[in-house]
Amino acid sequence: MGQISRKSTVMKKQKPIDNYQSIVKNKKASFNYTIGETLEAGIALLGTEVKSLRIHKASIGGVHISIVKNQAVIINLNISEYQSSKHNNHKPNRKRILLLHKKQINKLKGLQKLQGITLVPLSIYFNNKGIVKVSIAIAKGKKIHDKREAAKRKEVAIELKRAVKHTS
To answer: How deeply is 41 buried, as exposed, middle or buried, from its count of CB atoms within 10 A (0-12, 13-18, 19+)?
Structure first.
């Protein structure tokens, strides 16, 4: 009887890919809000919107998230029209539905009602599979004096770095 030969294959462990292609970031979010927990959500988009995002034609300024009829909706997200599409284009400022689990939506709804929490989008990006995702922060608005203190701390940190750099 002949033996069945089996090739031994050495499988390499695949490293998790954490890098993603950032499309747009909300730089003012950390200045205007104290950021708590962050979530990742999918977003329902049309084909021309995805094509516009691939060429970084989006603006996240003035965007907010609200929960309407048990759905998380992102409002005022400006995705410019795709120039190569002539007649099947999208509206730039339409409301877009965020894809979250029902438990997550109920949790966010409760936080908004009881604690006065704001849902702020931090960034929009393509994950390693090429799917558009939105990073959402559960945040609380800062007062004016909090913003001034944060700016002072930032200035002091910059001055310390300069001083260390010059002494070296």
So the answer is: buried
